[in-house]
Amino acid sequence: MDLAFVLLALVTVCANVFSAVCDFVRYEKVAVGMDAAGVPRSWMPALGVPKAAAALGLLAAFRIPPLGTAAAAGLVVFYLCAVATHLRVRDYSFGFQYPFLVLALATLALSLAR
After folding, report:
1. Which residues form the signal peptide (predicted)?
2. How far apart are CA 64 and CA 2, in angstroms?
3. How far apart are CA 75 and CA 34, in angstroms?
4. How many domains does the chain have?
5. Taking residues 41-62, what's their average pLDDT?
6. pLDDT digits (tens, 9 = 90+) for 36-46
7. Residue 22 sits in which domain range?
8. With contact defined as beta carbons under 8 Å apart, do 81 and 38 qualify?
């Protein structure tokens, strides 16, 4: 298994598990960013579910590579939607959606290259 993919996938898993937990516990600093984007705080736990599911999918990629590709693609779509949501309300602040999108894109690229 390609070492670069393994390391990047593990970083992406950790980042998204952290983000999902922040959503599940409605962490205030995350909630402020969601307020700026016009997303109701009540949606936070529901938005943590796809992040957690994708993290599990990336872990499963070590046994079932196509599942990891699908999980990484799902994260790319999720974070593109997050960026679009912020841009829609003219929130140009640099939030976590951008580095998370870059992580998801890089993981997807390495997954497809394997």
Report:
1. none
2. 14
3. 18
4. 1
5. 96
6. 899 999 999 99
7. 3-113
8. no
